[in-house]
Amino acid sequence: MSDESTNPDDDLRSRLHAMETKIRRMRDNRNGHNENARRAADSRNAVQEQAKGLRETIDELKAKQKEIRDEARIHKARRDEIQGHIREIISKKRGRWDEERGSKSVVIELSETEGQIEKIERRLETDGRLKLEDENKLLKELKKLIGKRNELLPAIKEHEAITIDLGDMDESINRLKAEADSEHQAMIDCHKQADEIWEEIKPLFEERDFLRAEGDRLHNAFIEARKAADEVHSEMKVLLDQVNEIRDSIKAAREEREKTIKDHNQSVRDAIRSPSESEELAGSLEAMFLESGSLTLGGTGIEEETDEPSTPKPRKSKKRKLGTTRGKV
C-alpha cells in the first residue's frame, strides 16, 4: 500500500483545498455585496418615504393655492361683470343704449324686466278704465315677462345678483363702482395670499428634487451591488462544479484503491489458508466421502471399513510346556 507522501490524490487535494479557500473568500465577498445592496435599499426606501410625505405636503399646498387662485378669478369675473354694468348704465344715461338683447348684461336685462312687471302690475291695480280686452293683453304680457324673469334669475344667482335702480342711475353707478373696487381688492388679496403660499412651496420643490436625486443614487447603488453579488455567485457556481468534480474523482480513486487492497488481502488469505481451513476443500471431501464410503486423510494408511462390523481374527500364541525333565530312556 502506497505511502501518504506518494498518494496520487495529493495534487487533487491541494487543488481542492485552494478552490475551497477561494470559494469561502468569494462567499464572503458575495455576502458583502448583498449587505451593501440591503443597506442601499433600506436607505433608498427611507428617502422615498420621506419624499412621498414631502410630495403630499406640496400637493396640499398647491391645492390650497389653486383654490385661492380660483377665488381670485371669481372676484375678477365679478369685477369685470360689474364694470360692464357700469358701462351699460352710463351708455343708457347718455342715450346710447343698444336695444339688442345680446348686447345687454343679464343684470341690466333682469332690472328692465322687473321694472316692466312692476309697471304692468301697478296699472292693473290702479287703472279702472281698462277694458276687458286690454286687461287680458296686459295679463298675457305680464305672464310673458314673469317667465322671462324666471329664466334670468338662475344666471343672476351664479353671479350674486346686483340690483340696479334704473330710476336713479347715478346712485346705481356709484354703488356698482364701490362693489367693483371691493371685488378688485379681494382679487388682489387672493393673489397675494397665493403668492405667499408659492414662496412656501418653492423650497419644498428644491428639497423634493434633492430627495429624488438621492433616491435615484441609492437605487443605482443597490442595482450595482446586486449585480456584483450576482456576478460573484455565477463564478462560485462554476467553481463549485469543478470542486464537485474533483471530490468525485478523489472519492472514485479512494474506492478503487480500497477495492484493490481488499482484493489483494483476500488473495493473500486464500493463498496461506490450510486445507482444513478451506471450506471449499472440506465440502468437496465430504462429497467424495459420501460417494465412496471411505476416505484417507494425510497418507496414514489407516483404512476405515464400511458400516458392517468386522469379525476379529484369533490371535496365535505359543504354548508353553510345563513338567520335569527326565533322562532319555
Provide a quick synopsis of the model.
The protein has 329 residues and is mainly α. Helices cover 76% and strands 0% of the residues. The chain contains five helices and no strands.
Q: How much is the radius of gyration in Å?
A: 65 Å
Rounded average pLDDT: 76
CATH topology label of the domain at 35-211: Helix Hairpins
**CA distance, first residue to last residue:** 99 Å
Poorly predicted runs of 5 or more residues: 1-5, 96-102, 298-310, 316-329
Q: What is the number of beta strands?
A: 0
Q: CATH architecture of the domain at 35-211, please?
A: Orthogonal Bundle
What does the main sheet amount to?
none
Structural class: mainly alpha
Tally of helical runs? 5
Specify the CATH class of the domain at 35-211.
Mainly Alpha
Task: Please provide the ordered H/E string of secondary-structure elements.
Answer: HHHHH
In terms of DSSP E residues, the strand content is under 5%
Helix content: over 70%
Q: What sort of overall outline do the alpha carbons produce when their principal axes are compared? A: rod-shaped
